[in-house]
Write a structure and sequence with these properties.
The chain is an alpha/beta fold. The chain folds into 2 domains: 21-69 and 162-231, 2-Layer Sandwich (Ribulose 1,5 Bisphosphate Carboxylase/Oxygenase); 76-149, Rossmann fold (3-Layer(aba) Sandwich), CATH 3.40.50. It is 31% helix and 20% strand. It contains 7 helices and 10 strands. The chain has helices at residues 8-17, 24-34, 82-91, 99-105, 130-135, 151-160, 184-201, and strands at residues 21-22, 42-49, 61-65, 76-78, 95-96, 115-117, 162-166, 172-179, 207-214, 220-222.
Length: 232
């Protein structure tokens, strides 16, 4: 964030919250106060783990179905068989069909694509573009439920609020959990579901810190007491 955009009042406010932890309700109120962007910012959660996951095999991956979605517009590529094209398009896929394998291999790509869905019967055909999709972090994966014999169900899940998470090399999980325009109740429910699901699926990892932020704001440290019962 540019220092030129910080007013005296904002600097004073930020000095009061620096390195302090807050309840969920307080954190949501604060990040809405310190945001200054004119667009509807994403509200993001970051979970820092005590364990440093530098070994690829130890990376944590998973999915969470947020009750109120992320507010983000999805652009889904469904590489499916002919009999699944119409239904995939009908439920919300942006691009549909096997012909996209050759298109991608020839250099085509839409940077708005944030999910790629496929089917078990045609995964061998994706070999020629596996490196391309892999570099983008979008290779269909059973663990993310992006490989399915019923791709329309996977597409519906993504549109309704499914998010994918993966720890980075420093052992930090990053994910969007809504938009600044969401009500505090919607954001609070999304956060609780995300953290509870993460803890339930990755009980052998210990959470060190949890932060909330918006696209353009500083991070707010959460008081983890509200999650303690879920971690036992």
């Amino acid at each position: 964030m540019s220092k030129k955009k910080l007013t005296k009042n904002r600097k004073k406010f930020l000095s009061k919250i620096y390195k302090k932890n807050f309840s969920l309700e307080e954190s949501l109120s604060i990040i809405k106060q310190i945001g200054f962007a004119k667009f509807d910012e994403s509200v993001d959660i970051s979970i820092r783990l005590c364990k440093n996951n530098k070994i690829g095999n130890n990376n944590i991956k998973g999915i969470v179905d947020l009750p109120h979605g992320t507010g983000k517009k999805n652009c889904i590529l469904a590489i499916v068989t002919e009999d699944k094209k119409n239904e995939s398009k009908k439920v919300g896929a942006t691009y549909v069909g096997l012909d996209y394998i050759d298109k991608i291999n020839s250099g085509w790509w839409d940077n708005k694509i944030n999910s790629v869905i496929s089917m078990p019967s045609i995964m061998n055909k994706l070999n020629m573009i596996s490196k391309i999709l892999g570099r983008k972090g979008l290779m269909p994966n059973n663990k993310y439920n992006t490989i399915s014999s019923d791709p329309e169900i996977s597409i519906k899940n993504i549109i309704s609020g499914r998010v994918f998470f993966k720890s980075d090399k420093y052992g930090i999980i990053h994910s969007s959990i809504g938009r600044k325009s969401f009500s505090n109740n919607f954001l609070l429910e999304n956060i609780m579901v995300f953290v509870k699901e993460f803890i339930k699926k990755n009980y052998n990892y210990h959470i060190k810190n949890i932060y909330l932020s918006t696209t353009m704001s500083y991070s707010i440290l959460l008081d983890q007491k509200v999650f303690l019962n879920e971690r036992k």
